[in-house]
Fold this protein.
Amino acid sequence: MKKRILIIDDDVLIRTVLRSELEEAGYEVYELESGVGANDMIENKGIDLIVLDLFMEDQEGIETLRSIRASFQQQPIFVISSNRDFFDIVMDMGANKTMIKPLDIDNFLLTVKALLF
């Protein structure tokens, strides 16, 4: 069974590139443009890993991380952002890994694999 990954990022280009790379690597990928509805998707789709941007329009990543952690304590969360200023905070809140944008796709895919296995 394919591992399921949820990408939460308001940048359609980032979502498109990540979806393409992850699907090529054999993962099933879902997308949201904000954290709104993330908990429902995690529960309904059996998501194995969340890739979460920090700065989005409708629901910020920190609020989304807090909401996910309240319901899913063991859910792996991989935070990506162009601003590393909040990385210590999100790690303290329960993120499993952080990575700065622009992403090095090879390192990104290695990190995803490590978080899933």
User: Anything to note?
Assistant: The radius of gyration is 13 Å.
